[in-house]
Amino acid sequence: MPASLNHHSTWYKSIMKSISDSAETLYTYENAIHGFSARLTYEETRLLKSQTGILKVVPEKIYKPLTTRTPHFLGLDKIADKFPESNATSDIIIGLLDNGVWPESKSFNDNGLGPIPKSWKGKCE
Question: For residues 55 and 29, is the Cβ–Cβ distance under 8 A?
Answer without folding.
Answer: no
